[in-house]
Amino acid sequence: MEAQAPENLEELTERIALLLDRLPKRLRQCAEYILQNTQEIAFSTVAEISEKANVQPSAVMRFCQVVGFGGYTDMQRLVRQTIQPKMPDYSERIQNLRESGDDSPTAILAEFVEAGRQSLEQLSATVNETALEQAVETLAQARLIHVMGLRRAYPVASYLSYAFEKLRIPSVLHGGGGRLTHAEAMREGDVLIAITFAPYSPETIELADEAVRRGLPVILMSDTPSLPINGTSVVPLIVSEIDFGAFRSLSATLSLAITLAVATGARRPG
């Protein structure tokens, strides 16, 4: 009788720990790597996990089955759901807003103003001053600043690029059009600002991972401490937005972005 699949991250790690000593060598390598890097499953392919665990992709697939999953996709889905619970889609959000009776323009405006105020106060109280200082110092010394953010993060990325342009700071905006990341444009002495919110943009994660592999500094702006990218060259800046009706504005995030641009401009040599 096959084992039932774990239902949450805690059950997954407990099951792996129980099986660890009984697994064949290659499956044990998978188990040890995944125990130490569980959240990477959410953003990595089978090939990437097999390479990092130093096993064949077939061993990763077999490991998933031994743990109780039908395959790698099932395990990845569980990890992703744990990192970021499913948000209602936009039609559901609008319907919920109508049912609450808060759908007049003035009421919506008041709610977003209040959410923005709370987001800004939260940013002011929780910003990591050491990380912010390190980020600005790194950007001030950069030969070229690469900026990438897609979907909800795209307005922040484009705003940053606009600010850098006006401040005469060399930068390039990566858009991901045609699934082209332009990763080869990154050179020694460059810095990447990667902006992504859960559930994270795979294209942004891919470019950030490439920068880390090359040893380039990465300034990561995100909304959760459960970061999708790790490494000694990664400087995390966490900023979260208070939502209204499951809609989030970018009040705090844009404030952090313009802070980075202006502080960098002030610190760069004239």
From TrEMBL:
This is Transcriptional regulator, RpiR family. It comes from the Bacteria. GO terms for molecular function: carbohydrate derivative binding; DNA binding; DNA-binding transcription factor activity. The keyword Secreted does not apply. The lineage of its organism: Bacteria, Pseudomonadati, Pseudomonadota, Alphaproteobacteria, Rhodobacterales. Keywords: DNA-binding, Transcription, Transcription regulation. InterPro entries: Homeodomain-like_sf, HTH_RpiR, RpiR-like, RpiR-like_SIS, SIS_dom, SIS_dom_sf, WH-like_DNA-bd_sf. GO terms for biological process: carbohydrate derivative metabolic process. Residues 10-86 form the HTH rpiR-type domain. It comes from Yoonia rosea. PROSITE patterns: HTH_RPIR, SIS. Residues 135-270 form the SIS domain.
